[in-house]
Design goal:
This protein has about 375 residues and is α/β, with parallel strands linked by helices. Helix content is about 35%, strand content about 20%. It folds into 2 domains: about 130 residues, Enolase-like, N-terminal domain (Enolase-like, domain 1, 2-Layer Sandwich); about 220 residues, Enolase-like C-terminal domain (TIM Barrel), CATH 3.20.20. The protein binds N-succinyl methionine (SMG) and magnesium ion.
């Protein structure tokens, strides 16, 4: 595949409402997009990094920098060297990026844009390429920390009326047992309910976290720090609520370590966090073979990142609803045709590559800068 060029594009997308987690409040999504141009097709990749390194160590300016200095030049060197088969090999791209430590969100954006361009050239959808098994996926929604319990109940009620299949509450010390109890009391025992702490607790909080057991949660996501695999294993032995890892799982190797240690019984897979869709699929395969459930996480993606996540979420091991919400959960105007929930599900795109394109006028309006 001949690459004519790669564009780095920064866009600014106001969120419909502030989204507060244990590490901060997002009001706007500052997104880095990659566009790979070839004579036959264009491919898109969305970088999951946030403006500041608070969810993980990556941040948007850092991702743009490492792409410019190291990752894009490494891919250029690879593509300038003809492959023995003469064929483009996305796994060779994956291997060429591997020697650079970390920067998984930057790697994922680049690999996805190349994968998208290549799949579009061949007319195959990302969902088919990855091995999707379903035409639609059930959707959950992640509900931020609110200023009051009544405000939370109103927000949850609105999402349930829209059809969301499960509710995830963001928690932190001081905002955990009371909101969970209130949501359970109001919406009943059948509501699929889970919580996400974004690493806000430590092993010393175990007796407190054990009180969540009374509320029959689907899971507790990332209670401790990302490198606390041993501590998560200790917690998992002491509480009944299943432990799910998000920030801790950077690769299939981490997933294998976490499964061996008993650190989790569920994994949240985010392609950005693990360096792309190829690694995401490896984690899915590994988890499935071990009877570990997985679900697809979210990083407040635009329609471009959402389309690719829906393809992944359609793989057979994704047995729990993901944070793959509809476009209007995030943005008044998405940069693609909006994804709209139908009976609590979103359709898996079927067109070539990620299956969606940005709407040119909208993309232009939200663009802050471009670099070729
Ligand atoms: O995309 O719906 C979404 C956001 C889901 O809660 C979500 N993501 O830790 O899982 C998580 C967070 C990380 C991003 S918070 C700004
Ligand atoms: Mg999480």
């Amino acid at each position: 595949m001949k690459i004519t060029g790669i564009e780095l594009r920064r866009i600014a997308m106001p969120l419909v409402a502030p989204f507060r987690t244990s590490f901060g409040t997002e009001t706007d999504r500052d997104v880095l997009l990659l566009r790979v141009v070839t004579p036959d097709a264009e491919g898109w990749g969305e970088c999951a990094a946030m403006s500041a390194p608070l969810y993980n160590s990556e941040y948007v300016d850092g991702a743009a920098d490492v792409l410019r200095r190291f990752l894009i030049p490494a891919v250029k060197t690879l593509l300038d060297t003809p492959a023995p088969t003469g064929q483009f090999d996305i796994h060779a791209v994956n291997r060429a990026l591997h020697p650079f430590k970390g920067h998984n969100m930057a790697k994922s954006a680049l690999e996805t844009a190349l994968l998208d361009a290549w799949l579009r050239t061949g007319g195959q959808s990302l969902a088919t390429y990855l091995g999707a098994a379903a035409p639609t996926v059930p959707c959950g929604v992640s509900v931020g920390i609110m200023t009051s319990v009544p405000a939370l109940l109103e927000a949850v009620d609105g999402y349930l009326q829209e059809g969301y299949q499960r509710i995830k509450l963001k928690i932190e010390p001081g905002w955990d047992l009371a909101p969970v109890q209130a949501v359970r009391d109001r919406f009943g025992p059948d509501l699929l309910l889970q919580v996400d702490a974004n690493a806000a607790y430590t092993l010393a909080d175990t007796p407190h976290l054990a009180k969540l057991d009374a509320h029959d949660l689907l899971l507790i996501e990332q209670p401790f720090a990302d490198d606390d695999l041993v501590q998560h294993a200790a917690l998992a032995k002491q509480i009944r609520t299943p432990v799910c890892l998000d920030e801790s799982i950077h690769s299939a190797d981490h997933a294998a370590a976490a499964i061996s240690l008993g650190s989790c019984s569920i994994i949240n897979i985010k392609p950005g966090r693990v360096g792309g869709y190829l690694e995401a699929r490896r984690i899915h395969d590994l988890a499935r073979a071990h009877g570990i459930a997985v679900w697809c996480g979210g990083m407040l993606e635009t329609g471009l990142g959402r389309a690719a996540n829906l393809a992944l979420a359609a793989l057979p091991g994704f047995t729990l609803p993901g944070d793959t919400s509809g476009s209007h959960r995030y943005f008044a105007t998405d940069i693609t045709e909006p994804f709209i929930l139908q009976n609590g599900h979103l359709p898996v795109p079927t067109g070539p590559g990620i299956g969606v394109d940005p709407v040119p006028d909208i993309l232009r309006e939200v663009t802050v800068s471009t670099e070729w």
